[in-house]
Design brief:
The protein has about 375 residues and is an alpha+beta fold. It is about 35% helix and about 25% strand. The strands form 4 sheets. A 7-stranded mixed beta sheet has the order 2-3-8-9-1-4-7. It is globular, with a radius of gyration of 26 Å. The two termini are about 40 Å apart.
Length: about 375
Amino acid sequence: MRALYIDPFSGISGNMFIGAMVDGGFSPKGFIEGLAPLGIEDDDVIFEKREKNGILATYFNLKSEEDHHHHHHHRGLDDMLAIIEKSGFEREVKDLAKDIFLPLAEAEASVHGKKLREVHFHEVGELDAAVDVLGAAYYTLLSGVETVYVGKINTGAGMVTCAHGNYPVPAPATAHILSSLDVPLGGELVEEELTTPTGAAILKGMKASYRPRPEGRVLKVAYGAGTRDNALANVLRLFFLETEEARAPIFFSCNLDDMTGEAMGFCMERLFDAGARDVSFTPIFMKKNRPGYRLDILTDGEKEAAVLDALFTHSTTLGVKKFPLEKIELPRTFCRVATEAGPVATKFARYKDVEKASPEYEDLRALALERGTTLDAVRRAWELRS
């Protein structure tokens, strides 16, 4: 499976993401052609190599970006969606660009206490913001990646000047979008705004999920240059990976105190039907010393939506904690070993100088039924194998 791992150790912005994609080998040609109906031509676009603290990265921007920032008409959401629609990109690109832009509109509406259709976009530019979300959508779809992961996000620190005054980093719109992502913040402290509202919206719109960098074959590494020069290299790093897993496993957990045993059993069945790997109920005492149960669910990432649907449909919980997991495994081999009871498929692994072995339960069970004996007797035979 092809995966994109976004490493925003020095933040993320729209132009950094597009620059990194071009740095990864994707041509600017189709992107610029898609922008032509918006009045943007080759001469209006900058793609060039820039060195950032010894890292050679690709820089992207509009030459007239400064003019666009200073000559706003403060368009509303419908105006911005019309700009996206006017572009020359395929329908799939336009739809993804709208999915990326919508979190920006929702953030502005929340910050300013307005309805979605009443908001005007102060903290992001107009044409340059539309170009950034179109570019992010175009290159993501062009890359053919099946899933997108993101590491810890460095927002930067200090103060940022917005339309309504000075605010601490992250800017209000950025902070609102980040609050809806299950992604930790962290990184080297830099007194600059490193993650922009558009950068955060790209992660939200692409449904990037947090996890440490997944295992897999690195196909290429790319760097997109930011506009600033800091002690920390102002670049966005992308890893294009070939991984064996579909998506990172997910662990869900919630507490219940108002379900019967029959209802919990039925819920467990539906969770397994939806694709959960493991489901368990643990007796607990909740606040005010009320007895209850903790429901824990382990599932593969690609089954997340189906499992959540089953959980909210068949349990009384109103919320659930979600934890992306990184599984650490020892290299292992499989073989069938001879025992007095019969052959048993066995997993072998080694940690330092210690060999570990584990018999397959289904083989033990089959031999016990075949011989009319106990599971323990078959296991002892396996333990005494030569």
